[in-house]
C-alpha cells in the first residue's frame, strides 16, 4: 500500500538507551507530523516539518527529544537517554499540503505507530 | 499539552442503536474534525467541519460544528459491529497545521 509507514512497529528498550523511530510518509506529501499517544489518550502533537524544515517543535517534551527530515521525505524521531515515562505509542502523519486554508482541511494521514516500551 | 474534553469516555450499545458523543474546548477552533481509530491502526478521518453551525453527514454519521466554535458532536445512526473503535475529535486553527485531540470515546457494539 501507499500509506504512511513506521518502523519499528514495536520497540522495547532499557532505561538510558537511545532510540530512533522512523517514519516514511506518503510519497509526495510535503508535511510530516509526529504525535505521541499515551494509553487512553488522544494523540498529542510533538513537532512537524514542511519539506526538510522543522516548522514547530513546541510539543517536544524536553531536549532529549529531537527530530529530523534531512531530505524532505523520511523522518527520524530520536529519544536520548530514554526514561520509563517515554513509554507510549509514537505516531507519524503526513499531508499533501502544509498548513490549512480557510474552508478546507489538508488531511493528515496517520501511520500505524511505533509502540515504545522503556523498561 | 492541551486536550479537548470528550464524552462519554466509553459506550456499550446494541447493534441498531443510535449513539451520540461530543467534544468541548475552552478555546475556539476554526475547524473541527472527527477521526476513528481501529485496533492496531492509526486514526482515520471521518468528517471535517469548517463553519460554525455547520451540520455535515457522511453515510450514517452526522456531525455538527457548534455555534460558539468551542464544541462539536458526532452522531452514528443504526450502529453496526464494524463501528467498534475509538472516536477522536480534533480541533485546528487557520494558519496552523497542528491538531489538538480529545481523549477519545471507545465504542463497543454488541451484535
What does this structure look like?
The complex is a heterodimer of chains A (119) and B (111). With 119 residues, chain A is mainly beta. Helix content of chain A is 0%, strand content 46%. Chain A contains no helices and 11 strands. In chain A, strands 2, 4, 5, 6, 9, 10 and 11 form a 7-stranded mixed beta sheet that branches. In chain A, strands 1-3-8-7 form a 4-stranded antiparallel beta sheet, with no helix packed on it. In chain A, strand 4 (31-37) and strand 5 form a beta hairpin. The termini of chain A are far apart. By secondary structure, chain B is an all-beta fold. Helix content of chain B is 0%, strand content 52%. Chain B has strands at residues 5-7, 10-14, 19-24, 31-37, 44-49, 55-58, 61-65, 71-76, 85-92, 100-101, 105-110. In chain B, a hairpin with a 2-residue loop joins strand 6 and strand 7. Chain A binds chain B through residues 4, 31, 33, 40-45, 48, 55-56, 59, 91, 93, 95, 98-113, and chain B through 1, 3-4, 6, 30-31, 33, 40-45, 48, 50-51, 88, 90, 92-104.
Radius of gyration of chain B: 13 Å
User: What is the CA–CA distance across the termini of chain B?
Assistant: 38 Å
- The sequence of SSEs of chain B as H and E is EEEEEEEEEEE
Instruction: Assign an overall shape of chain B.
Output: globular
Report, as a whole number of angstroms, the end-to-end distance of chain A: 33 Å
Radius of gyration of chain A: 14 Å
Principal-axes geometry of chain A comes out as: globular
- Percentage of β-strand residues of chain B: over 45%
Q: Which ranges of chain A are low-confidence, i.e. pLDDT below 50, for 5 or more consecutive residues?
A: none
Amino acid at each position: 500500500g501507499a500509506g504512511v509507514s513506521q518502523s519499528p512497529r514495536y520497540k522495547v528498550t532499557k532505561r538510558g538507551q537511545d532510540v530512533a523511530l522512523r517514519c516514511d510518509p506518503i510519497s509526495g506529501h510535503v508535511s510530516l507530523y509526529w504525535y505521541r499517544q499515551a494509553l487512553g489518550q488522544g494523540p498529542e502533537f510533538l513537532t512537524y516539518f514542511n519539506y526538510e524544515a522543522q516548522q514547530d517543535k513546541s510539543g517536544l517534551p524536553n531536549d532529549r527529544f529531537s527530530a529530523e527530515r534531512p531530505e524532505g521525505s523520511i523522518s527520524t524521531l530520536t529519544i536520548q537517554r530514554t526514561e520509563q515515562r517515554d513509554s507510549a505509542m509514537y505516531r507519524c502523519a503526513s499531508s499533501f499540503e502544509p498548513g490549512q486554508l480557510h474552508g478546507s482541511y489538508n488531511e493528515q494521514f496517520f501511520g500505524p505507530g511505533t509502540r515504545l516500551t522503556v523498561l | 499539552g492541551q486536550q479537548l474534553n470528550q464524552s462519554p469516555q466509553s459506550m456499550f450499545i446494541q447493534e441498531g442503536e443510535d449513539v451520540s458523543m461530543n467534544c468541548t474546548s475552552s478555546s475556539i477552533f476554526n475547524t473541527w474534525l472527527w477521526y476513528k481509530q481501529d485496533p492496531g491502526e492509526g486514526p482515520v478521518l471521518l468528517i471535517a467541519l469548517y463553519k460554525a453551525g455547520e451540520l455535515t453527514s457522511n453515510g450514517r454519521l452526522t456531525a455538527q460544528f457548534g455555534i460558539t466554535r468551542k464544541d462539536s458532536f458526532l452522531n452514528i445512526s443504526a450502529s453496526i459491529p464494524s463501528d467498534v473503535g475509538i472516536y477522536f475529535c480534533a480541533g485546528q486553527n487557520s494558519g496552523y497545521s497542528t491538531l489538538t485531540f480529545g481523549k477519545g470515546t471507545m465504542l463497543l457494539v454488541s451484535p
